[in-house]
Amino acid sequence: MTAPRQLSFNIFLHGFGHHEASWRHPDAQPGVVYDAKYYQQIARQAEAAKIDAIFFADIPAAGRNASYGALGQLEPITTLANIAAVTEKIGLIATASTTFHEPYNLARLFSTLDHLSGGRAGWNIVTTSSAIAAGNFGLDEFPDVSTRYARASEFVDVSKQLWDSWEADAIVHNKETGQYADPSKVHDPNYRGQYVSVEGALTNPRSPQGHPVLIQAGSSNDGRAFAAKYAEAIFTAHQRIEDAQLFYNDIKSRVVALGRSEDDVKILPGLSPIVGSTEAEAKAKERELNELIIPQSGIEQVKGNLAGYDTSWFTLENLDKKIPVELFAGAGNVTDNKRSRLQVIAGIVEREQPTLRGLLHKLAGGRGHQVVAGTAEHIADRIQVWSENRAADGFNIMPATYPGGLNDFLDQVVPELQERGLFRTEYSGNTLRDHFGLKQPVNSFEVSQSQQAVRAAEAASARV
To answer: Is 418 within 8 Å of 376 (Cβ atoms)?
Structure first.
C-alpha cells in the first residue's frame, strides 16, 4: 500500500487574525500586533507542531480605511529576523515587492535572513497591485501589469546572480598567507536590463540554502507564466476544488513545459479553518465573527477589487438585496485569469447569487480564500480530498483569530492529519528547502570539475 503523500503547511501571519472583524473579537488585545513577543509566541507554537513555515504578507501602504479596519503592520523581513532568534527549524517567508525595491538591497536582506536563520528564508515575490503604495515610493504613475512582471523577471534574474556571486569555496581564510578570499571565485553580475541594473557582487557569501525559497502569489495569466519559470511554491486562492484543480494542472503543465519537474513547485491554496467540537459550534464561531464586521468597510474592500466595473450598486441600502449577476459580465470565468481576485468574487456571485451582506460574510473570513467551519475531522477531510485529487500540495493556513483560531488548528487539526499520515511528526531537516522537499539550486557561476579540467588543458596547451 502506498504511503500517504506528505503535505506542507504554512501559518499565515496577519494581525489579530484573518477574519476582517478579528480585531473586535473579545479575545483581541489592543497593541499586541506591534509586540515582538506576539509573533515569537505564534512561531514557537507553529514550530512545536512541526509546521513548514510562517508567512508574513505585506502591502507597503497604510491604506485609507483606518476608521474601521485594523490597518498598520510591521515590516516582514526585520520581524522574521527577530523570530529567527527564538526558533530553530520553522521556515520564515516574507513578502517583498519587485516594484518598490532595488535588487541589490533586497537580495542582500534575504541572504542575510537566510544566513542568520541557518537556511530558513523564503521570498514571496509580488509585483504589488496597490496603486496607493506607488506614491509612497515616488512613482507618479503606477506601472501596468505587464511592465511590473517584466521588471520582476529582470529583478529575480539578477537577484539569483547576486546570491550566486560567491562560489562555495571562495573564502580561503588562510591566516598564514594572509589571503581571505579567492577573487577569481567572487563574480560581479554586471547586469544591464531594461528595468534594473546591478554591477558588483553581493557583500556576503552564498547562504545556506543557495538562495531563499522563491514563492509567488498571483493567479493571473501573467502571474502563472512568471510562477512557472521562477516559483518553488505558489500561494493561491480558490473557493472550489474544481477551480483549484484547473489551476494546479495548468501550473504543473507549464512547469514541465519549461523543463522543470512537477515536484519543483509546491501549490499551496489559502485555507481559513474555524474549528469546533461540533459543526454547530464551529458555525456559531463563524457567525459570531461575521456579526462583528463593519459593512461599510467590507463594501469598500469589495469595490477596491472591482476597479473598472460600475460599483455604484454596492451601498448600505442594498445590503440585504441579491447582487445583480450582470454587474460582473461573466468575470467569474475560470479560464480568463486576467484578475484573479475579481474572478473569485465574481464566481461567488454568479454561482451562489448572494445578498450583498452574504457576500461580505463570505469574504470576511479570508478575503476570497476558502473558509471551512467544522470539526477537526471535517477540516482534515477537506484537506485530504484536495491533496489526493491534484488540487493542492498543502495549504497556507489562515486562522480567523489569533491566538484562539491558531490554537484550535494546531491542537486539533494537526494531530488528525498526523494520525492519517498526511503530515510529519518530526522535522527531517533544518532548512525550508528540507521541509518543502526542494532541491538546492546550482550556483550559476561555478564550473564543474570536467569544465575545470578542460580549461586547465587549454591553458597548458597555450603555454606549449
So the answer is: no
Report whether 57 contacts 124 (CB < 8 A).
yes
Q: How far apart are the two ends of the chain, measured CA to CA in Å?
A: 64
- Please indicate, yes or no, whether the overall pTM of this predicted structure exceeds 0.85: yes
| pLDDT tens column, 425-462 | 999 999 999 999 999 999 999 865 446 555 555 555 65
| Pairwise CA distance, residues 108 & 58, whole Å | 19
| 169 secondary structure, DSSP code | T
- 533586497: which residue's cell? 106
pLDDT, tens only, 205-259: 999 999 999 999 877 888 999 999 999 999 999 989 999 999 999 999 999 999 9
Q: Cα–chain-centroid distance for residue 28?
A: 25
Which candidate, 384, 456, 451, 385, places its Cα nearest to that of 422?
384
The three cell numbers locating residue 128? 504589488
Distance in angstroms (rounded) separating the CA atoms of residues 177 and 164: 26
Cβ neighbours of residue 211 under 8 Å, at least 6 residues apart? 110, 111, 114, 159, 160, 163, 164, 441
Q: In b/e form, how buried is each residue of 81-95, taking b as 16+ CB within 10 angstroms?
A: bebbeebebbbbbbb
> Would you state the cell numbers that stand for residue 389, as one nine-digit string?
485529487
Q: Tell which residue, 2, 1, 53, 7, has the closest CA to residue 423.
A: 7
Question: By C-alpha distance, which of 123, 128, 297, 110 is closest to 208?
Answer: 110
pLDDT, one tens digit per residue, over 356-402 is 888 888 888 877 789 999 999 999 999 999 999 999 999 999 999 99
- Residue 66: left (phi > 0), alpha (psi -120 to 50), or beta? alpha
The partner residues of 273 in beta bridges, in order of sequence, read: 372
| DSSP state string for 408-419 | HIIIIIHHHHHH
Determine how many CB atoms are found less than 10 A away from the CB of residue 268: 26
**Cell numbers placing 273:** 479553518
